[in-house]
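pls ignore typos typing on phone
NAP + seq
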Amino acid sequence: MDKFDFNGKKVLVTGASSGVGREVAILFSRMGAKVVIIARREDELKNTLALMYGNNHSYRVLDLSDFDRIIEILKDIVSKDGEKFDYIAHCAGLAIPIPLRSMSFVNISQIFSINTYSFMALLKCVAQKRIFNDGGAVVGISSCVGVYGQSANAVYGASKGAMDAFVKSAAKELRPRKIRVNTICPCGIKTEMLANQTVKDIEGKKIDELPDYLMLPDKVASIVVALLSDSMQYISGVALDVDEAKTWED
Ligand SMILES: NC(=O)c1ccc[n+]([C@@H]2O[C@H](COP(=O)([O-])OP(=O)(O)OC[C@H]3O[C@@H](n4cnc5c(N)ncnc54)[C@H](OP(=O)(O)O)[C@@H]3O)[C@@H](O)[C@H]2O)c1
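k done
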């Protein structure tokens, strides 16, 4: 059997209105999957759908900061077409630089809601047999900031580091159903998120003007899809560095 064959498989991609998530959705559509894409900006979700191959895909507008709503929506998607999910790529994320002196419960909660709690909500769905098929896989996009740190980004890094820790136990719990759970920890990628950062070489630049040493979102997307594929059969509970062996330069 072709380990990269996604024909007949149903995939959920969060954060598919731009950046890596959009590229993951496009790639899955090329590989034959039925893809459901999620984000808040409806116009951009429609733009992603227009770039995808085939016409059996759909979108849902959803704010991932609402833990219970995520579970409701996934149940609703499955009940509408009677098909459970096989794969989830959690690409949505929020990066707001917060120096230690500016931390508040509100801004910490906001970052953790979107990066971490939503990932936990998705894995709660995966644990329900009526929502997610046995033998599937989940990948969350974490960050090298969680692994190596970055000044003014301790909250973001902690929210991503929590994802990396979470998959270690989730992978054990889901192993009896042969469901694999991993994260990837990339460094800088040429996307809107990075263009909005106040970092050396980057501040005030448009995506096209960002430096060439940054990774491209379609290349990172192919790593996400490869890690979800059956070719990675024994890989679970892992936080995989995706940084060409270079750590973030502060
Ligand atoms: N770019 C980098 O250098 C870099 C490096 C390491 C890790 N990452 C991680 O890679 C992932 C993809 O980011 P990207 O670089 O592709 O940036 P991006 O283009 O800004 O994508 C972020 C996505 O998250 C979605 N999102 C944000 N808040 C949301 C919310 N409350 N509810 C639902 N969706 C929400 C956005 O959609 P809407 O605005 O339409 O809701 C968008 O689709 C993120 O997890 C990020 O932390 C990025």
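The chain has one domain: 10-242. The domain at 10-242 is CATH 3.40.50.720 (Rossmann fold). more later
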